Amino acid sequence: MKRSNTQKLKDALEEDIINGRLLPGEKLDHDALARQYGVSRTPIREAVQQLVVSGLVNVQPKRGTFVAKMSLDQLIEMFEVMAELEGMCGRLAARRIQAAELEALRAALLRCEDPEVMAEPDDYYYENEEFHNCIYTASHNQFLATEARQLKQRLKPYRRLQLQARNRVSNSSEEHRKIFRAIETGQEREAEQYLKEHVLIQGTRFSDFVSQVKAFGNSSQLAS
Fold first, then answer.
1. Sign of the Cα pseudo-torsion (5, 117, 146, 209, in order)
2. In which residue ranges of the chain is CATH 1.10.10.10 found?
3. What is the pLDDT of residues 11-27, one digit of tens each?
4. Residue pair 127/117 in contact by the 8 Å Cβ criterion
5. 3-state SS string over the chain?
6. Is the keyword Disulfide bond in the record (predicted)?
7. Tens digit of pLDDT for each residue in 195-217?
8. Cα–chain-centroid distance for residue 110?
């Protein structure tokens, strides 16, 4: 999946925040960022606006834009809620998915399994995102799908980071196959459980995840 220049810039800024090159509470200097990335202020402004929407940065009137803070406990709680939303989407999709939606899900699954995609965690992330979007759509519950997409967007930088962990991409791909089969065969409970585990497995390996995150001002705060 081809990414726009603004998307690439947003991803780079996300990594700077997650890896501690931009610290929680730090003010974002648009001019300095433009010089750093060799671009004008316009794409910087567009990328930062997207980061505001995702919750990674916040705007303080008359003061500027700052890297946001969130406790580790809050992040874990968000992953728990994400798992429940994903599970519900999977259960409803197994019951309600239409033929065209199933084919779209199958196509997304195959793109995730492309060796070239699997070799690049970021490429895999965006194909993975489309796989999950297909499930949200197939739930035929617009409110649920919207909530899932919004929370997924807030968790995006952390989920991208987790794909850097050893074997995570290959394990994720195997989990996708199980999820697809459950939805394809109408196994509601299995689809729900597999999707919960797909998200929460990241939680059970949270110590590995935390070891990757460099943006700790102290042991209880990290960038959001």
1. negative
2. 5-67
3. 888 878 766 678 778 99
4. yes
5. CCCCHHHHHHHHHHHHHHCCCCCCCCECCHHHHHHHHCCCHHHHHHHHHHHHHHCCEEEECCCEEEECEEEHHHHHHHHHHHHHHHHHHHHHHHHHCCHHHHHHHHHHHHHHCCHHHHCCHHHHHHHHHHHHHHHHHHCCCHHHHHHHHHHHHHHHHHHHHHCCCCCHHHHHHHHHHHHHHHHHCCCHHHHHHHHHHHHHHHHHCHHHHHHHCCCEEECCEEEC
6. no
7. 999 988 554 466 666 665 543 33
8. 19
- CB 212 within 8 Å of CB 164: yes
List pLDDT tens digits, range 39-78.
Answer: 888 999 999 998 888 788 989 998 999 998 777 778 888 8
What class does CATH assign to 73-212? mainly alpha
Residue 176 phi/psi, 5-degree rounding, is: -60, -40
Cα–Cα distances in Å, from 140 out to 90, 98, 178, 184, 202?
11, 10, 21, 16, 27
